[in-house]
Task: inverse folding
């Protein structure tokens, strides 16, 4: 459906996107994830056709849409776009905004399609209101409905949740995912919030400084990060120094950690091991202890920040009925299925 | 985007060759000349096309348009401007027995570049109740400290004042004129502002006792439909200065045929008409200017003022000395 | 990766369209007069500067600066306070005042100067009555002098404040209630909120209005000349006409333009430093608060004062004069005057709007130093006195005319007259040079409301080019377009000096007629054409005000 090949985009000699390649299947939802200023929006805009690449190509529906020499105009690409500021037309009602891209349809078909998306996104209550009379969430639904109405091949969403209440974001993201999946829509979302990315996307690309670090499923990003930058950006966790002592074992301050599969580093190599909070299990019977330095209540769990006797900081997720005071020593036990580790000199 | 006005300009530019006509750039206001042109058209069948405006600006337009300028005749309300146009090479000499017979020599260019059409005198008006006319004598005497804070006059940007000072420069030379100017400025009752009617009203209101004005403004106020104007004018009286020596300062309104004139004959005919008896009578009656043609009676008001002696300085020098006059006024602090 | 690649322009626009080229050409043509005037700096002008420097230059400078300062300081509160009151509060008459406050816009500055002088001067009815009633003589009592620098400041401020009012009100209307409410939750009282939040947010709009006011003030000739205040503009004329040096006059104008340019750069910088935008997408409109009793009365007086002094009193005086004289001044030619004025004003306003649209869009698509500077310079004409503009226009056009004709003669033999000079074309052109700033400002302000993402949204929905313009831009811009149209319309109605010099044969306007009569000091007879200018100007002013209120009702 969408294929980006070795794409580079530069503005005034400043490279914003460097050699990015990715592929998205029809009906899948992709996500470009990265901190602000990393180039993810530029990548999205290049896919939309607002920017022209310096090298590389963008293919849509097995058709080349962008290259350094040729550019299929945005209006001919069949991409829908939801803008960060929604860009609703202030002089049109919600319904007229939705109808904006449907001018070519005959009246009856247009009305049918409007009714469809109005129902799909639950806009009926405010379909005759002007944008300034709508809340942020309502505006967002209108913006999505407007982009979906002409049935684009590809829907692009630029930080669509950034104007929403934080506590609603994940929920709305899941609802949106359901709607898009029902419609069989292929979509790409840009966000800096990984929870939104996890809630929405089938495939996620982590972008840093204009480069695509990893294009993979959420599970793999979390559990099989391609490098320390991805590991650091996705999820919480700390790196512990260690030394490879056998093909499957690493010696660290938490003791010898054993992975299910060979880690591929020669013995005596200095490595950094990624320790996720869920890798550290609280066990009152364990001989190994750590001191509670901080704790955050997360409903079902506490996220404890602990220090090992030598001062190294680690995180641990503990069921919330284990309420320990700060300063208290508690028993811990590492429980790792597979080891995520990088050679020390390249770790962060 | 510009089709519309271009179309307009074409529509206006193309039909420029109907029967006989004459094109006039006039520094004289429309109301004070158009009726004469209408009468001329009625009499001769020659159409008169008119643009009015500030004479200096019209001269500039004439200059920039150059040889192709559509203007045939330049009308101004002072000799200085006509001199300037002539000096810029914008006028051409014309000779007409009728013009030469009618217009006295001092009121026309010796070579026929321009001709005077009416005479305007700059005089002193005084508050009847406060000033004894016996105290008044000459322009020169207005600089006497005795009149300190008593004199109203308009700005030095005004051509009538510039011409008056130019005449002083001719008669008395640079130093004496500048000294006179300093004395005159010291006698100002207020910073110069407004026009000549304003000066008359200020005298009537008691802000000053004397003012320097052109006669036809006073006459215009006396014959005004507005009671306040008439009342103000009745509180002042006119004094003819310098009657014992060279005479009162006069200027003319006049006209000259342009160098680019394409309707020279019609322009000369128009000039001749403007000095004809009916036209001259109209000047006197409508605008209260003194006719340039001898033997033509003005209106009642003009007749009520006694005969006066006019300075017979050739008016060309007013133009020559104009710049020097402005500089002298600047230096004296006449605003 | 970036080597050997030419930098790409955003939006994939790497070529210059014919449309852009045409705009650049039109812009360059309109810049000619300004360049011609500026070029005069390099011409020798003899010892005139020495003379000016020794005698009058300091006074010109001082008076121009004081005038600009005074008009600025006075028109700011006159514009901003009523805008704030009628937008955020309700009190008796507030709805009527909302549009009435714009009325002085229809009053030419020189006309208001004439009327107040007629009323308040030493020989006017008021002082005459005082003298008669109390048997005073001149000098027995103190009375402010109308025809003075403070008088000129007052006159100009009274007719120019509507520019600030207009832009300030539009800015206040666009502000969201949240901002004020947030300020109040932070413990700021409403009056304080005005100074701490509302005013700073509206600052770009207010300073744009102030820039217009100052430019108009510096270009004013009629009022200061009549009041005997020697400023740069009167100096330009005296140098030109009295000292006979059009070069030195142009140099003085160039100096004036330089001054205005500095002003504009400062304004631009101030605006950049304070680039405020509403970040919240949830704009709730400000609900006007109803004022009661004393406060309402005070608000009413504050808002009614500028209307009373800037419009009702002078218009009333004009009406009185008209009643005395209409039988002699109302004739068949009068209708022709009205028609000529309206026709010119309408054509110019329309063209100015189209040009401003073309310029602003070119600037939007090819943002850069050149387009920015060009559009700034295109607005410069607003600060140049009309007569100087007229000469700046005549110089290139008569040159062009002569060359066109030489060419024509070679082809067809001699005979043709000037093609452009002395036509409506050249007159309209001069108006465009003079007033383009107004429509540029209006369009620019409107275009700022069309966020680039709206263009992109339109394109992603398959709508582009003129269709996008028609369906998105024009509806959003409508209010601003109307504003630009009407401001130019009203200003052309009032324009005098350029009209005087450039108009064709047998072609007069209301302003010309009013001037000729007033200049002959026949004020009472000048009242009819003057009142006609005011009336012709009122209609668009009311339309303008209604359009703004409607645009507020439709969307914030």
Result:
């Amino acid at each position: 459906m969408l294929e980006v090949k070795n794409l580079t985009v530069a503005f005034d000699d400043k490279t914003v996107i460097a050699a990015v390649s990715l592929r998205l299947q029809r009906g899948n939802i992709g996500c470009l994830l990265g901190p602000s200023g990393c180039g993810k929006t530029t990548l999205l805009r290049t896919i939309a056709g607002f920017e022209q690449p310096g090298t590389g190509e963008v293919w849509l529906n097995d058709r080349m849409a962008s290259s350094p020499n040729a550019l299929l105009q945005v209006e001919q690409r069949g991409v829908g776009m939801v803008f960060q500021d929604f860009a609703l037309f202030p002089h049109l009602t919600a319904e007229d905004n939705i109808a904006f891209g449907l001018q070519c349809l005959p009246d009856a078909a247009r009305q049918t399609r409007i009714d469809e998306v109005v129902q799909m996104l639950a806009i009926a209550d405010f379909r005759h209101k002007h944008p300034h009379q709508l809340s942020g969430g309502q505006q967002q639904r209108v913006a999505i409905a407007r982009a979906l109405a002409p049935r684009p091949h590809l829907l692009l969403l630029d930080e669509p949740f950034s104007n929403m209440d934080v506590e609603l974001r994940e929920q709305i993201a899941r609802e949106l995912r359901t709607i898009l999946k029902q419609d069989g829509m292929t979509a790409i979302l840009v966000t800096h919030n990984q929870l939104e990315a996890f809630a929405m996307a089938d495939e996620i690309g982590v972008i840093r400084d204009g480069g695509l670090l990893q294009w993979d499923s959420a599970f793999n990003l979390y559990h099989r990060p391609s490098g320390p930058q991805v590991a650091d950006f996705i999820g919480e966790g700390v790196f512990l120094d260690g030394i490879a002592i056998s093909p499957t074992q690493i010696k660290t301050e938490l003791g010898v950690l054993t992975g299910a599969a060979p880690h591929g580093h020669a013995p005596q190599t200095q490595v950094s091991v990624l320790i996720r909070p869920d890798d550290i299990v609280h066990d009152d019977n364990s001989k190994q202890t750590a001191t509670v330095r901080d704790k955050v209540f997360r409903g079902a769990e506490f996220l404890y920040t602990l220090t090992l006797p030598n001062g190294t900081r680690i995180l641990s997720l503990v069921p919330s009925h284990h309420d320990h005071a700060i300063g208290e020593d508690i028993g811990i036990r590492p429980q790792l299925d597979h080891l995520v580790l990088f050679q020390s000199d390249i770790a962060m | 985007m510009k089709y519309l006005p271009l179309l307009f300009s074409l529509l206006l530019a193309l039909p420029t060759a109907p029967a006989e006509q004459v094109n006039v750039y006039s520094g004289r206001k429309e109301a004070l000349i158009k009726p004469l042109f209408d009468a001329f058209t009625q009499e001769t069948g020659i159409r008169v096309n008119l643009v009015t405006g500030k004479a200096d600006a019209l001269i500039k337009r004439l200059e920039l348009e150059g040889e192709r300028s559509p203007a045939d005749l330049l009308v101004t309300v002072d000799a200085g401007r006509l001199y300037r146009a002539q000096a810029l090479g914008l006028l051409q000499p014309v000779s007409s027995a009728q013009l030469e017979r009618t217009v006295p020599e001092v009121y026309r260019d010796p070579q026929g570049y321009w001709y005077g059409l009416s005479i305007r005198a700059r005089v002193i008006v005084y508050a009847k109740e406060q000033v004894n006319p016996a105290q008044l004598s000459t322009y020169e005497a207005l600089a006497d400290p005795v009149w300190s804070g008593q004199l109203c006059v308009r700005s030095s940007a005004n051509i009538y004042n510039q011409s008056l000072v130019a005449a002083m420069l001719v008669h008395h030379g640079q130093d004496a004129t500048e000294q006179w100017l300093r004395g005159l400025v010291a006698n100002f009752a207020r910073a110069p502002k407004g026009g000549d009617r304003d000066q008359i009203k200020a005298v009537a209101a008691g802000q000053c006792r004397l003012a320097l004005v052109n006669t036809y403004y006073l006459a215009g106020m006396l014959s005004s439909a507005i009671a306040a104007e008439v009342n103000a004018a009745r509180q002042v009286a006119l004094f003819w200065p310098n009657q014992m020596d060279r005479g009162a300062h006069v200027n003319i309104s006049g006209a000259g045929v342009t160098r680019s004139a394409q309707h020279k004959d019609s322009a000369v005919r128009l000039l001749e008409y403007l000095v004809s008896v009916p036209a001259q009578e109209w000047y006197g009656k409508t605008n209260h200017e003194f006719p340039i043609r001898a033997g033509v009676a003005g209106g009642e008001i003009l007749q009520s003022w006694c005969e006066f002696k006019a300075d017979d300085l050739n008016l060309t020098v007013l133009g020559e000395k104009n710049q020097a006059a402005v500089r002298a006024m600047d230096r004296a602090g006449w605003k | 990766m970036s080597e050997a690649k030419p930098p790409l322009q955003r939006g994939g626009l790497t070529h210059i369209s014919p449309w852009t080229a045409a705009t650049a050409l039109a812009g360059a043509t309109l810049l000619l007069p300004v360049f011609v005037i500026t070029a005069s700096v390099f011409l020798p002008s003899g010892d005139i500067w020495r003379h000016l420097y020794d005698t009058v230059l300091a006074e010109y400078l001082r008076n121009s600066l004081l005038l600009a300062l005074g008009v600025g300081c006075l028109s700011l509160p006159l514009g901003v306070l009523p805008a704030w009151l009628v937008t955020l509060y309700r009190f008796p008459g507030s709805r009527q005042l909302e549009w009435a406050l714009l009325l002085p816009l229809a009053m030419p500055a020189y006309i208001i100067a004439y009327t107040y002088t007629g009323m308040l001067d030493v020989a006017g009815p008021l002082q005459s009555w005082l003298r008669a009633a109390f048997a005073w003589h001149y000098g027995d009592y103190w009375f402010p002098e109308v025809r003075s620098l403070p008088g000129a400041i007052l006159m100009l401020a009274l007719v120019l404040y509507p520019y600030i009012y207009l832009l300030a009100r539009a800015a206040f209307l666009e502000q969201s209630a949240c901002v004020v409410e947030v300020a109040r939750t932070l413990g700021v009282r409403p009056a304080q909120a005005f100074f701490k939040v509302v005013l700073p947010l509206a600052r770009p709009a207010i300073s744009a209005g102030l820039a217009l006011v100052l430019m108009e003030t510096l270009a004013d000739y009629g009022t200061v000349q009549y009041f005997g205040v020697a400023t740069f503009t009167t100096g330009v004329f005296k140098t030109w006409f009295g000292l006979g040096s059009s070069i030195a006059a142009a140099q003085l104008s160039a100096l004036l333009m330089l001054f205005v340019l500095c002003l504009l750069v400062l304004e631009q910088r101030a605006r950049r430093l304070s680039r405020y935008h509403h970040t919240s997408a949830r704009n709730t409109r400000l609900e006007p608060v109803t004022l009661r009793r004393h406060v309402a009365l005070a608000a009413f007086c504050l808002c009614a004062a500028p209307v009373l002094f800037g419009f009702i009193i002078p218009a009333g005086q004009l009406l009185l004069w008209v009643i005395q004289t209409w039988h002699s001044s109302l004739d068949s030619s009068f209708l022709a005057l009205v028609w000529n004025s309206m026709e010119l004003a309408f054509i110019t306003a329309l063209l100015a709007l189209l040009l401003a649209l073309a310029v602003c869009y070119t600037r939007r698509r090819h943002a850069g130093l050149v387009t920015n500077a060009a559009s700034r310079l295109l607005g410069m004409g607003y600060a140049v006195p009309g007569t100087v503009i007229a000469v700046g226009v005549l110089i290139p056009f008569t040159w062009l005319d002569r060359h066109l004709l030489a060419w024509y003669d070679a082809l067809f033999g001699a005979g043709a007259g000037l093609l452009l000079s002395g036509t409506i074309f050249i007159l309209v052109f001069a108006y465009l040079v003079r007033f383009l700033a107004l429509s540029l400002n209006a369009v620019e302000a409107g275009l700022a409301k069309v966020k680039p993402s709206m263009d992109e949204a339109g394109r992603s929905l398959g709508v582009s080019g003129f269709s996008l313009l028609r369906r998105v831009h024009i509806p959003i811009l409508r209010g601003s377009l109307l504003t630009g149209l009407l401001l130019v319309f009203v200003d052309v109605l009032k324009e005098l000096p350029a009209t005087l010099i450039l108009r064709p044969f047998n072609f007069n306007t209301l302003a010309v007629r009013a001037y000729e009569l007033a200049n002959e000091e026949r004020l009472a007879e000048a009242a009819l054409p003057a009142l006609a200018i005011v009336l012709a100007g009122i209609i668009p002013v009311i339309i303008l005000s209604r359009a703004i209120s409607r645009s507020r009702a439709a969307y914030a």
